[in-house]
Amino acid sequence: MSELRLYEKKVLLALKELNGKASIDAIAEKSGLAHAAVMRAALSLSEKGMIKLYEQKMTIATLNDEGWSYLEKGLPERRLLKAIIELGGRASIEEASKKASLPRELASIALGWLCRKGWATIEEGICISKIDGEPPSGSDEELMKLLAERGKVSIEYLNQEQNNALGILKKRKLVNLNEKVQRFLELTDAGWKIIEKGIEIAEEVTQLTPELIITGKWRRIRLAKFDVEAPTPPVYPGKAHPLQQIIKRAREIFLEMGFTEIRGPLVETAFWNFDALFQPQDHPAREMMDTFYLVNPSMGKLPRDSLVKAVAQTHENGWITGSKGWGYRWNPMEAKKLVLRTHTTAETIKYLATHKKPPIKVFSVDRVYRNEQVTYKNIAEFHQIEGIVMGRNVTFRDLMGVLKTFYTKFGLEKVEFWPCYFPYTEPSAQVMVYHPKLKRWMELCGMGMFRPEVLAPMGIKYPVLAWGGGLERLAMIELGLNDIRTLYGNNLGWLRRTPLCR
Ligand code: PHE
After folding, report:
1. CATH assignment at residue 389
2. d(CA 249, CA 256)
3. CATH number of the domain that 52 lies in?
4. CA-to-CA distance for 421 and 373, rounded, in angstroms?
5. Which of 362, 378, 467, 471 most suits a substitution to test ligand 1, by most atoms within 8 Å of the C-beta?
């Protein structure tokens, strides 16, 4: 009980006086509280189970301008009747309307009602009053008075007679009707019980002022309690884009795991993007369909001769690797072509060309481009999470461990490794993660151990674990999206609603 706020108590008392059930308006009037205060009390009291809050569609009737003017001057038929009586009970239509100062259009309306109400008859253009004095106001006039007094009336509250009168006022176009949702409060049993116990109204102080303290009044007053969990208007502070937050988190996780970040240019030669990774020059991924080739400049530089030669030979016949190679004639012009990198593996292999000794643990989170049809799960410009580990004795198991750790740190539980194929790794696999919202497994990351055909030309004699995966798909799972395009749509509503990442 003591927890009830003053305005809550006032609402309960008003409800009691209104027999336990009333509209917000009625309670505001009875309690003297502001509408908003009643509403606030309604919400908190219904949370406490003391009242029930419900809505009902109501039709609100108000007088329109014409209605108001008739109310002031009297209905035209009443004015006409008065004129006839004053003219001795008999008068021509013209005479009577002139005396009543009714314009022609109003006069004919007035005549109609005059007869219908049985106040007068007309014989050959002469109005004859059927009553001596002025008649008492009819139900139509009574209703107009009520509307004027109250300002507005819900027609649901009208009785049969008033309803008939409303029909007439409606026909005469003297009222406006508007639909409005009204909120009602009703005391529950629990609410009645509190009231029966008695509600004591002691004014509460919401602010402790210097004056209250100095005068010592603070000892006697009652300080209002604040509900610190009450809902407040939302605020939308500036924050990093959700995707940037996820990029940051991916970086932090790799750093935590002891990796160092590397970065490279967006534009690479096909040599680093494809050839160095033992992808044959007629590989379908190189076709215009998948890769964006630069037009101007269209060619870049190849690295040192010995490296290019080793790659060429490996492609043609396997060189010293024990492989048979692809068995075609390697073309340096094809390798010089400039592309928007299609994967960040271009950067890790380039890194290996100058870092040949273990231990190596590097990663990148960077942008790549593919000429893909844009759909709910594909976009043409996205980010990859890439990395390599070189160690004297690292194995495929270590690779699974690294990735499992990474995705677990990200908060993903259902992580599996499915076998698959890449031209540059053996064995190869892909990380599959279950998307709870899409209810299907999603391919998140390619992985494998670099083949001898990749390592030998770089002069590397140790096993290298490698992986590269989509960042946006990870973001989709993390943010509960089922369309990857949301990440780039800049929908302000979505950006505001999306909370800061963990
Ligand atoms: N580069 C591959 C891709 O873009 C992923 C990958 C990286 C696979 C490294 C194996 C090793 O899908």
Report:
1. 3.30.930.10
2. 10
3. 1.10.10.10
4. 23
5. 467
CA dihedral 278→281→285→291, nearest 10 degrees, is 110
What's the pTM value of the predicted model, to 2 decimals? Answer: 0.60
* Cα–Cα dist 339/265, whole Å: 11
Host H or E run for residue 417: strand 415-419
Burial class (CB in 10 A: 0-12, 13-18, 19+), 71: middle
Number of separate domains in the chain: 3
Which contiguous run of DSSP H or E holds residue 290?
Answer: none
Write down the pLDDT at residue 502: 59
- Atom of ligand 1 minimally distant from the CA of 445: 5
| C-alpha atoms less than 13 angstroms from C-alpha of 322 in its C-beta half-sphere | 3
128 and 248 part of one domain:
no
**Rg of the chain in Å (alpha carbons):** 43
pLDDT for residue 437 is more than 90: no
The tens digit of pLDDT for each residue in 401-411 reads 999 999 999 88
CA distances from 59 to 68, 153, 154, 181 (A): 19, 8, 6, 9
Residues 6+ apart with CB under 8 A from 207: none
Span 293-311, average pLDDT? 97
467 in contact with ligand 1, CB cutoff 6 A: yes
51 and 75 belong to one structural domain: no
Confidence of residue 1 (pLDDT cuts 50, 70, 90): very low
pLDDT digit string, tens, across residues 128-144: 998 888 888 899 999 99
The answer, yes or no, to whether any atom of ligand 1 lies below 6 A from the CB of 187, is no
Pairing of strands 440-450, 381-390: unpaired
pLDDT digits (tens, 9 = 90+) for 336-381: 999 999 999 999 999 999 999 999 999 999 999 999 899 988 899 9
Q: Give residue 131's domain range.
A: 65-135
Q: Compute the average pLDDT of residues 74-91.
A: 92
